[in-house]
Amino acid sequence: MSNQWSNDPQQQAKQALRNLQRMFGGNGGGRGQAPKGAIGAAGLLAGLGALAWAVSASLYNVDGGHRAIKYSRINGIGEQIYGEGTHVRLPWLETPIVYDVRAKPTSIQSLTGTKDLQMVNIVCRVLSRPDQARLAHIFRTLGTDYA
User: Fold this and answer.
1) Residue 77 · residue 71 · CB < 8 Å
2) 62, 98 Cβ separation under 8 angstroms
3) If DSSP codes are grouped into helix, strand and coil, which group holds residue 88?
């Protein structure tokens, strides 16, 4: 018979171990055990969360008035142009590069002199947009800030 209030630390450790075994999975009674399907349910929940993240990370949207090309870590810039809508990508391997293909105004300002030596400020407003068929070439040569 073991005394619960024994002063021997070795006996106290053995008694504590027996109590833990009885509470968490020993042969004694099943008190404190997790429900039978809890580990499976937690694994299923983690799997569903990972699947939801993978689906979310593999979709991207191209808004109206925009076009996209894909940069792949394996092949580089792709030639295919993606229009408006939702598209699929491989999360780590592919990155979409979205261009605004609407006409944008750019103002070019110049200070010039006239024949009678007066200074005149001239502003020329230019509407420009990229050629949609050549977006990959524009990205390779000029980058995303082409205007």
Assistant:
1) yes
2) yes
3) strand
Q: In the chain, at which residue ranges do the beta strands (DSSP E only) sit?
A: 59-62, 66-72, 76-77, 85-88, 94-100, 104-113, 119-128
37-60: burial string, b at 16+ Cβ within 10 Å, e else: eeeeeeeeeeeeeeeeeeeeeeeb
**Alpha carbon distance 6, 2 (integer Å):** 8
Fill in the DSSP letter of residue 123. Answer: E
Per the confidence metrics, is the pTM higher than 0.90?
Answer: no
- CB neighbour list of residue 91: distance below 8 Å, 6 or more residues apart: 54, 57, 58
State the Cα–Cα distance between residues 49 and 70, nearest whole angstrom. 27
* Tens-digit pLDDT string for the chain (147 aa): 445 556 777 787 888 888 777 776 655 445 555 566 677 778 888 889 999 998 888 999 999 999 999 999 999 999 999 999 999 999 889 999 999 999 999 999 999 988 888 999 999 999 989 999 999 999 999 888 876
